[in-house]
Amino acid sequence: MEIFMKESYFMGIDTGTNSSKGVLINSHGEIIAEHTTEHAMTNPAPGHYEHDADKDWWGDLCIISNALIEKSKVSPSDIKAIGTSALGADCLPVDDQCRPLRKAILYGIDARATDEIEQLTEMYGEEQIRQWYGRPLCSSDVMPKILWIKNKEPDIYAKTHKFLTGSSFIAAKLTGNYVVDRFLGLASFNPLYFNDGTPNPETCLPICRPDQLAEVKEANDIAGYVTETASKETGLAVGTPVIVGTDDSGAEAISTGVVAPGKMMIQFGSSIYMILGTKELVDDERLWREEFIVPGLCDISAGTNAAGSLTKWYRNTIFPDALELEQNGGPDAYITMMQDLDKIPVGSDGLITLPYFAGERTPINDPLARGILFGLTLAHTRQHMYRSALESVAYSVNQQLKIMLEHDVPIDQIFAVGGGVKNDLWMQIVADVTGKEISTPAITVGASFGDALMAASGIKYSGFESFNKLTDFIKPGKTYHPNKENHEAYKKYQNIYDSLYPATVNLMHCLSD
To answer: Does the structure show a pLDDT above 50 at 220?
Structure first.
């Protein structure tokens, strides 16, 4: 008699800046269902960016989980584990019932804690800060955000049971346990933890109580199991293992095979996030460095605040007719916006954009930086402006690649991921500007795929036991080869781009006085 083994499935759900995505994969790493929901961040004051954690994080997860089960017709009991990720370096205070006490303060794009950064730098001294971070404090660090709540919202601070990130909040809602992965905890909450992941009472003292921090574990450790309450909301079976999870960029890097030195991921989402695997920590105050999700692997990382958010701004502000056409049943607005952009020459006929529309993280660490359109003439059209915006993101990526290469670290393979990879011209521009081959993975759903892979790894499912084995399920898709002539032509515009911020920074800051 022939015996058929029942298939096992693994769920991955990622929450990003403007949307949440989920996938269900089988034991062969094949996607059998996927679902996406959208949400919006709020901007209640200049430099303030927030999410409603119950609605945008937990609500999206519940919608997606139920949708994946419905679409796949898979029994919840056959889903052997779930992995989640969320936008990193957020700060969400919750009470002892895991109820948010305010909206979540988002990652580096939120620059409200500038006073607290100055306060902490004065308190500890620049040398101590550099020993901790390898760079100055910046808006991507959680410690100043906690201190902002302590200084500006003392009533909320007094009621806070835990300070969580997005992935920690979701894990707590699923399991009742407060955990954070080592990668996110030691990097974003530095120096509030010792290197072994236990809270540091001395460094916590001016900021928060040690017991207000989540427990540090590995990203693919088991955080706990789906509770009865969570089961009713998500459709998952009671007792389903939940891994700790991580931030969206880390999960997306895993989905592209960043498990060894020389492997790089460039995430083209609302913002740009770059992660390069390295053998050891590399200090450069213009970039970030941390121990990566994969034990024994370090990374250099960088972030550009405006990428997909910049293209969205163009859609809503400069191309409203394209959006209206889409809403009336026409083609996707972004497709309409790309018409004739390939006919515009390298450098957009001398138009260069500085994409600091939301301040900037690396390499300038300046929340007061502002966007610039440099070189506008009466001959330029909105198509020139849009191509220039796409080129500006490529210039930013290249600027940060050049800094990494100053440290003689290998860059053997670059995978581009995120919504931006759907734009062939944009990816070709990035290849031409950088002079590097840019590949996309065959599976382009991103972080949620990495979450599902790590979920299988977390329960040590056969074939998924280690991070290195996960690469067996990652297949290359398309590769963009740099055009040598275009690369040489772009060098002139890259040099102008690199000079624009130093030439205008004082004027930018005058706008904030």
So the answer is: yes
Q: What are phi and psi of 113, to 5 degrees?
A: -90, 35
Contacts of 172 (CB under 8 A, 6+ apart): 94, 98, 162, 164, 178, 179
* Those residues with Cβ within 8 angstroms of residue 246's Cβ, 6 or more apart along the chain or in another chain: 85, 88, 167, 181, 183, 184, 219, 293, 454
Burial grade of 327 (CB within 10 A; 0-12, 13-18, 19 or more): exposed
pLDDT tens by residue, 484-506:
999 999 999 999 999 999 999 99
What's the domain range around 369? 308-401+484-510
pLDDT digits (tens, 9 = 90+) for 368-394: 999 999 999 999 999 999 999 999 999
User: What are the distances in angstroms from CA 247 to CA 11, 168, 180, 267, 273?
Assistant: 16, 9, 10, 12, 11
Token pair belonging to 29 = 């790493």
> Residue 364's pLDDT band (boundaries 50, 70, 90)?
very high
Separation CA 142–CA 132 (nearest Å) = 14
Widest Cα–Cα separation across the chain: 81
Whole-angstrom Cα Rg for the chain: 22
User: 65 with 242: CB under 8 angstroms?
Assistant: no
Please, which residues have CB within 8 angstroms of residue 359's CB and are 6 or more apart in sequence?
47, 109, 111, 139, 305, 366, 367, 368, 369, 370
pLDDT interval class at 419 (50, 70, 90): confident
Q: Tell me, what CATH number does 347's domain have? A: 3.30.420.40
Tell me the average pLDDT of the chain: 96
Question: Can you give the pLDDT at residue 206?
Answer: 95
Burial call 31-64: b when 16+ CB within 10 Å, e when fewer:
bbbbbbbebebeeeeebbbbbbbeebbbbbbbbb
Residue 232: Cβ within 10 Å count? 11
| Calpha distance 395→197 (Å, rounded) | 37
- Give residue 424's pLDDT band: very low, low, confident or very high (50, 70, 90): very high
Number of domains in the chain: 2
Looking at the structure, do residues 313 and 232 belong to the same domain, yes or no?
no
**CB-side exposure of 271: number of CA atoms within 13 Å?**
25
